[in-house]
Amino acid sequence: YDAKRSGSQVVRYDADRHGDSSGRLALVEELRAGIAGGELVLHHQPQVDVETRRTVGVEALVRWQHPTRGLLAPVHFLPLAEVHGLMGVLTDAVLAQSIAQAAAWHRTGRDLRISVNLSASNLLDTGLPGRVAELLELHALPPSALVLEVTETVLLSDPDRSLAVVGALTELGAGVSIDDFGTGYASLTYLHQLPVGELKLDRSFTADLLTDSRAAAIVASTIRLAHQLGLRVVAEGVEDPATLLHLRALDCDESQGYLHSPPLPAAELEQWLDCQDGRRERDLDGARPAL
Ligand code: C2E
Ligand code: MG
Ligand code: MG
Ligand code: MG
């Protein structure tokens, strides 16, 4: 035992680490129990056709209804789930809820697509496409009504394995979308090699569209090339009518963002859809240049 090395700094460092990690581990265990106990809830954000102003899809965004801490946003628990091996069960729960919800909407005549986010570890899980197929069959949802969102960085981390999973998902007939496009390393030149049907323009580009001519040039050429490759383009983070108008001029297909609606619980989304016709008029009024 070396007395000289047991300085207070070392002890404090260890104590901090211990306190920190035991807190984290407690939260991990709460999350594990919460997933099994049905504490994950989905909010749904509409994806609006830029031309017709109709809602054609929704993105399912997970929240954790924690028994004491309230409703937690993904940033507070997804990183933990990824590091501690819970992403598989988390995604299975999200997929089960999303597919059941979309199927219920389809039965009432609302033929919405539903988009579900996948994480890095999901794309290395070769059993995932089979479980997706079972859920689609169980709920009798047409595979084309499901879109899986993956980010470029995730695709490129282990391209061989993730492309096998992505390929199997598209073989089922589900759609695959590149989320947050423009923030990672993917380039348009390799897009044609991927079996994807949709690009989601990251909201950093959407936000700068009106004020930064370089961002506008990137968006314009991305949309043009995506269309030439047969891909649909969804703009994320659309917050104002002028941006929507600009996106329409650039031939962007779909718009998602606070302009239309924040992510909502299913029942509230249904109410929102019910009064969407009136809302469509209002958005148009806002987007019409003053004469
Ligand atoms: P994302 O997939 O890019 O989702 C869009 C995020 O932007 C959502 O945040 C949404 O609430 C937010 N957003 C939507 N419209 C606007 C807008 O007009 N302005 C601004 N500033 N933000 C807007 P959220 O729900 O906190 O989700 C954050 C991220 O967490 C998602 O980013 C996605 O990467 C991840 N995530 C969410 N749900 C899931 C899930 O079920 N599974 C996995 N693996 N990841 C998920
Ligand atoms: Mg997404
Ligand atoms: Mg995104
Ligand atoms: Mg984004």
Strand composition percent: 15-25%
Sheet/helix structural class: alpha/beta
End-to-end separation: 84 Å
* Distinct bound molecules: ligand C2E, magnesium ion
Q: Could you tell me the mean pLDDT?
A: 88
Estimated radius of gyration:
21 Å
Percent range for helical residues? Answer: 40-55%
User: Please, how many helices?
Assistant: 12
Low-confidence stretches: 1-19
Order of helices and strands: HEEEHHEHEHHEHEHHEHEHH
Extended strand count: 9
Per the principal axes of the C-alpha atoms, what is the gross shape?
globular
Q: What's the arrangement of strands in the largest beta sheet?
A: 1-2-4-5-6-7-8-9
Q: Characterize the largest beta sheet: strand count, sense, and whether it forms a barrel.
A: 8 strands, mixed, barrel
Characterization of the model:
It comes from Modestobacter muralis. This is Bifunctional diguanylate cyclase/phosphodiesterase. The protein has 291 residues and is of the alpha/beta class. The protein has twelve helices and nine strands. The protein is globular and about 50 Å long. The termini are far apart.
